[in-house]
Amino acid sequence: MVNASAPPPARRIAHLDMDAFYASVELLRYPQLKGLPVVIGGGRRRLDDALSAAYADVPLHKIPVDRFPTLQGYAGRGVITTATYAARQFGVGSAMGLMKAAKLCPQAILLPVDFDEYRKYSRLFKGVITEIAPLMEDRGVDEVYIDFTEVPGGQREGGRVLARLLQKSIFDATGLTCSVGVAPNKLLAKMASEFNKPNGIAVVQPDDLQTLIWPLACRKINGIGPKADEKLRSFGIETIGQLAARDLAWLMQTFGPRTGAWLHNAAHGRDDRPVVLESEPVSMSRETTFDRDLHAVRDRAELGAVFTRLCEQVAADLQRKGYVGKTIGIKLRYDDFQAVTRDLTVDQYTADSQTIRRVAGQCLKRAPLQKKLRLLGVRVGALLPADAVLNSDKDWGSTPVKPAQTAIHSGANDPLTGQLF
DNA sequence: TCTGGGGTCCTTTTCCTT
DNA sequence: TCTGAAGGAAAAGGACCC
Predict the structure, then answer these.
(1) Where in chain A do CATH 3.30.1490.100 domains reside?
(2) Taking CA A313 as the corner, what is the angle to CA A406 and CA A144, rounded to the nearest 5 degrees?
């Protein structure tokens, strides 16, 4: 039992964020690129294949720098996922189109994204963390929340001692650095982890709200994106302090009851979300942007093949991870970048590619197909673990499918989609 | 020269039922 | 049969995050 006379330990939540994760992992493989402008993104082919074919007998770190592909003359679609500091000097950055980046910094080396490699290091550093502090919430490939409250050392110097231990242990195991923020809750910990990047630690106490948090831009609150920020600015609200000064009723009136209350709490540093150790996925999807825009009629063979492949990929993902779902949908993005979605909920849970393909095809018939398409996606939602679903047969593929609601126009005579979809 | 891919969550709209 | 209200579920869109 807990000693009744001792106060409960103060809640200490850490947010740990790996520094420039993708780029750092790539530099472990190719240390000869250190200090050079490097952008990661776009490329569909694996660099390894190209380089290791030419340098089969040379270790990766000995491949000459001038053998790496650069942005010079790059033609094609795709965006930069991340860029090294040396590349940022030229004005290139995340989410920028590769062709634009090629104009700004043609000498930048282009590496393809290698998620398998990043996932490998992700598992590694998370394993190090849970050995020391088991209450960890996974927030993607390069960041986590950790509940320090009951961990030995988690209260010393407000959490700084444990944060240092984690940094050192992660570096020893992976060669990678990270930044840690420790605070009374997730909201503040997330902001704190940005204070001393890279390889930094920041500790925020409840009393620090006005001095450390209120001067920050509203955008620093996790959950306030470009749209919300713009709306706030239109009311003259730029800093978190200015947001905190608005009264709750006005915020709820202006932003809706839920968002308004959330904004109010966030500005006052209040957040009682727990650290969540396990969570089930809600949906799985695959989507692809075409090399060139495709037309539903003129390119229907190509489009149909991509469509089938996406369905197969989603089905394979579901099966590999052991899930079934019953809301099946598609996503289209037209050449003008407008996006539409259509989905349909069926009676039986499924992870079968042909079933997904059939239902997704019905969705596609309900979408406008006059404009050219630049992207096609397939999604399965309303997921359940496959072993939790008591469908009579285990062969998801053979389950009959019919729409749960309205009968869907068959579209058999539709000139656009007639036989193909 | 535009703008990836894989997610979650929230709000609004639409449809169905009573 | 029509009309309208109310509530729920599904569908659609969009903001946001990594």
Answers:
(1) 283-418
(2) 100
- The answer to whether A405 CB sits below 7 Å from nucleic acid chain B is yes
A143 is catalytic: yes
User: What pTM does this model have?
Assistant: 0.89
- Listed in order, the ranges of chain A carrying CATH 3.30.70.270 are 13-18+117-206
The one-letter amino acid code at A385 reads P
Structure tokens at A262: 């959330």
Residue A47 φ then ψ, to 5°: -60, -40
Instruction: Specify whether domain A13-18+117-206 bears CATH 3.40.50.300.
Output: no
What is the C-alpha to C-alpha distance for residues A373 and A343, in angstroms, rounded to an integer? 18
Q: Which amino acid is at A277?
A: L
pLDDT tens track of chain A, all 421 residues? 555 678 889 999 999 999 999 999 999 999 999 999 999 987 555 666 677 677 878 888 888 999 888 898 888 788 898 998 889 899 898 888 888 899 999 999 999 888 889 999 999 999 999 999 999 999 999 999 999 999 999 999 999 999 999 999 999 999 999 999 999 999 999 999 999 989 999 999 999 999 999 999 999 999 999 889 999 999 999 999 999 999 999 998 888 888 899 999 999 999 999 999 988 999 999 999 998 999 999 999 999 999 999 999 999 999 999 999 999 999 999 999 999 999 999 999 999 999 999 999 999 999 999 999 999 999 999 999 998 886 544 444 444 443 333 333 333 334 344 444 4
Burial class (CB in 10 A: 0-12, 13-18, 19+), A110: buried
In chain A, residues under CATH classification 1.10.150.20 are 214-267
> ω into residue A69 within 30 of 0, thus cis?
no
Helix (H, G, I), strand (E, B), or coil: what is residue A114?
coil
Chain B positions within 7 A of any protein Cβ atom are: 1-12, 15-16
* CATH 3.40.1170.60 domain position(s) in chain A: 21-113
**Domain A21-113 bears CATH identifier 3.30.420.40:** no
Lookup: nucleotide whose C1' is closest to A289 CA = B4
Q: What fold, for A214-267?
A: DNA polymerase; domain 1 (1.10.150)
CATH number of A283-418: 3.30.1490.100
Q: Nucleic chain B: which protein residues 74-113 of A have CB below 7 A from it? A: 77-79, 81, 94-95, 97, 99-100, 103
